[in-house]
Amino acid sequence: MKITLSSILFVSVISFTSCSDEPTTKASIQLPDQFEITGSAQMETSEIDGGPITRRIECTCELIVEIESRKEEADTIVYTGYAGGKFSRKILNMDESGFALEPDVFSEIIIKQYKSENLKMIFPPNVNDITPFYRDVAVLSGTINDGVTITGPWKCSPFNIEYGEGLSDFIGSAQGNWTIKLNK
């Protein structure tokens, strides 16, 4: 059997790369076992499209996430766990009167952290919810900025309810941002 230099190099390269114990999808950070998501969104709106500004919508988000498992896949780290906390959606008239909806929430969460420094948080029970508010926060996408913060946009949509005494929450989707601050 005749062995050439090129066949020896080919075998050596194969052996060298296949013996590496390091994962090829190393992310720049790994999420801690527990962290907080905070966010805010606001907008001014009218009750009639094109009409005068008659309402202000202010939203906040305060969630605690607890990670129960981590699993590395191709170019992704998948985290699973639970999130709980509070959302607030205030519908205020220009004279500051109005009402607030402040649901306490608890949900399963799946987080996908991509090698590209992008992150996607999925709250499975909300994905097909009929309420615009819950459906629009069911999937939140963001970017790992500096290894210390992760940020992304969110939309605080109506709960589609009649509150009574002429108060309702059927219009206005406030745009804002959410943030995760990691302890370094």
Give your account of this protein's structure:
With 184 residues, the protein is mostly beta strands. The chain has one domain: Lipocalin. It is 10% helix and 53% strand. It is built from 2 helices and 11 strands; from the N terminus they run αββββββαβββββ. The strands form 2 sheets. An 8-stranded antiparallel barrel has the order 1-2-3-5-6-7-8-11. A two-stranded antiparallel sheet has the order 9-10. A hairpin with a 4-residue loop joins strand 3 and strand 4. The N and C termini lie far apart (58 Å).
Q: How would you sum up this structure in a few lines?
A:
This protein is mainly beta.
Keyphrases for this structure?
184 residues, mainly beta, Lipocalin, two-stranded antiparallel ribbon, 2 helices, 10% helix
Overall average residue pLDDT: 83
For the record, the count of structural domains works out to 1
Strand order of the largest sheet: 1-2-3-5-6-7-8-11
Strand content: over 45%
* CATH classification, class level: Mainly Beta
Q: What is the share of helical residues?
A: 10-25%
Order of helices and strands: HEEEEEEHEEEEE
Cα(first) to Cα(last) distance is 58 Å
Instruction: Please report the total strand number as a whole number.
Output: 11
- Indicate the CATH topology: Lipocalin
**Main beta sheet strand tally, sense and closure:** 8 strands, antiparallel, barrel
What is the C-alpha radius of gyration, as a whole number of Å? 23 Å
Shape: elongated
CATH architectural grouping = Beta Barrel
